[in-house]
Amino acid sequence: MITHTVRTRRSADEFPQSDHLAQKIAEVAVDPVDVPPETAAMVINRIIDNASVSAASVIRRPVTTARTQALAHPGTPGATVFGVDGRYSPEWAAWANGVAVRELDFHDTFLAAEYSHPGDNIPPLVAVAQQKGVSGADLIRGLATAYEIQIDLVRGMSLHKHKIDHVAHLGPSAAAGIGTMLGLDEETIYQAVGQALHLTTATRQSRKGLISSWKAFAPAHAGKIAVEAVDRALRGEGAPAPIWEGEDGVIAWLLDGPDGAYEIPLPGPGEAKRAILDSYTKEHSAEYQSQAPIDLARRLRERITDLDEIESIVLHTSNHTHVVIGTGSNDPQKFDPSASRETLDHSVMYIFAVALQDGTWHHEASYAPERANRPDTIALWRKISTVEDPEWTRRYHSEDPREKAFGAKAVITLRNGEVISDELAVADAHPLGARPFGREQYEAKFATLAEGVVEPAEQERFLGVATRLAELRGDELLGLNVRVADTVLDKAPTIPDGIF
Length: 500
Hints:
2-methylcitrate dehydratase PrpD, tricarboxylic acid cycle, single chain, 2-methylcitrate dehydratase activity, 9 strands, CATH 3.30.1330.120, two-stranded antiparallel ribbon, lyase, alpha+beta
């Protein structure tokens, strides 16, 4: 890997395009290096993973809204929209499928200086691949780039520190991945990356206080913008430049300011793209920092005879967990039984309480209003708090995968004074966890979430296509769509008419 120092430059400085971060990303995107077999295999795993969570979310209201919008934009040759027949304009297919993937907060993650769900790159790349009739091997190459770029930006550049939403790293990564997939030249990719970044910077209010459905729409919007940015760049249109380093650019005014500097690692010439292997999926439908606490709660409940005897629970954890989904956020909504699903998903106190009581976690039942309003749950929930532990924060940011951790230590004090404590560094499904996910687990997750939504024969057909991805040609990529039973789609909510 080559580490690039990225900082603000004055307009009067000598700063050639060859030194711009967007240019360095374009150079990585055009490098014809082979995709390692393990990277290609993980790309397939994540395509299956996205289909799993899309099946589980297909009739939820935000997903239905996005699908309804997409169906108003048929396209030729077009791309597919999850669950239905027909072909649609690729940017709208990317939009609808992106919302389906993101709605339940149930797909892959990578955490470092910033946060990310790199599987959000898959919907825009698949949509463009279907529109352009590229091969499955080309799609794999594009996704290897998209994962690499997003994860490398996440390693070195914090957005949340300045309350900028993490999808600002997704726009450039999707644009770069599309560039690789289509075999575009450096200049076109450079311009597309700049446009995509410029148009996908937004505040983190979408993940603060009362969290709305926009949390699911935000990455889909970034993917749609990336598709449109590449289209404009292909037609010869340019971007603000230098987009990160400019005197009025992203670093100067949205991030660390004129004196800020970032160290961004990117593969060198001829170096394989392996970043996807450093990311991890979710066994539970909840914020990633809740994954290990859910597993920890399931383990601790066996040591507590009567949960009513709990006096208090303190979760010692990282700064991120404490201030984003813990009591360090100072969000009263995180203790509100009537809060939205998206808000409860960002309350580790609620999640730990339910997991401790139920010994399991379900993407629907665990968030149901009747579940959140149970008096015994509310009582336990309000006994839980978080504190930042510097060691957990250090491990969260560690570059050593053997000690990098996203978990917590739980200290439970009973009414009689007895203290029960335990800790878990990584979720059971993490590559270093008790039950790491492999192809078998990804397929099992798909079977579980697609049950009653996708007919068994259709499930089998999709898995057959996905696992042969490297061999697919042209229209065969249309097979990556999953048809949902009409009886299921009939249960989707009725969406009011909009503009389209």
